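User: Can you help me understand a structure? I only have the sequence.
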Amino acid sequence: MSKPNTKAQKTQIIEVLKQDYFPMIPELERNWTPEQHDKNRLSRSLAAFAIANLADLTPSQAAHSIINGGDDNGIDAVYFDRVNNRLWLVQAKAGKAPNMGDNKKFCDGIRDLVHKRFQKFNSSFSRLQHDVEDALDRNGVKIVGCNIYLDDSLGSHVVNDLNQFKNELNKFDSRFEWEDLNIENIYRWLTAKQENAPIEVKLTLEKWHCLEHQRRAFYGLVNAAELAELYKQHNKLLFERNIRYYLGTQDVNEAIAQTVKKQPLELFYLNNGLTITCTKVILPLGHEQESTKFTLEGFSVVNGSQTVGSIASVFNDNGAISPDAKLLVTIIELGTISDTIGVEITKARNTQNTVRDIYFAALDPNQERLRQECMVSNIVYQYRPSAD
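Assistant: Let's start by predicting it. Here is the structure, written out as tokens:
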């Protein structure tokens, strides 16, 4: 599946800039047409967007870094990132990549800033001057010039000029570097915000054992009530690497729920149990195999989502679950190195019972990419079956 073309990416980026940054970035007092005002606000918003993502700020905080306007000396935004020891200097173009003339203004402005010729900057810069001086006087601070624009790439002559400028500023001290933030980088930032962060779960296993071969695996008993509590806390995030979410009151799920309600002691015998994968398993000091609370990083139930959802439905209806309701769980530690074993485990553990082939589309990374890209425009793309 191909990614959105540049035109589609640009449309989505502009939507986000207008929604998230325009409220903090008003029109300048200029006798411009509405189109000119709009273009200017987009460029200033794009500069703030760069600062927000580079320094991990909110749009409101990043908007304070804008100095774009008359006598901005080619620099649209300035921010001293004290956490990462970076002085971010941004030139933004909400359209084509900066040409050699644009880049010359940017380099001249950075040169003036480095040499503290602050009189060449406008009044908006004066409120940031103290931070800039602090950054310039502090050892170990990198000065980073960033070109951000809604185009594919910088021209070769612009790149050459930036490299020459870098050599000039770093003649005696390697403090300056530059970053090329093209439309692909911008779009990657937007889609990354839609990614669900891995969750960490604490889960108690009883009478457990460990297998240590190519990777560690643990198996033991888990209390159904604890699974219901986890579902209440994390909901669908428990199943991020599964092929489907909980599908609701289907016949099989209703049978599981009835067993939990009326025959809790039989749940272990009548249920296939759960398979869980995680990136890391942490055991407490002095753990005992009779009962141990495991910490599981990067947790996902890859087989058994219907069981967990059915157990949670009983908890929602009754407010409690019998402590006698327990089932078998297998926990497989994948590690953090990206490989295909996680997908292979999910496929294998979900082909032992009737599963529609279309469900396996959920394991295709392109489906998650499409979901993230749609969410940039607040469009919900559901590729993993659920009860919703």
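Now, to help you interpret it: The mean pLDDT is 88. The first strand starts at residue 77 and ends at 81. Let me know which part you'd like to focus on.
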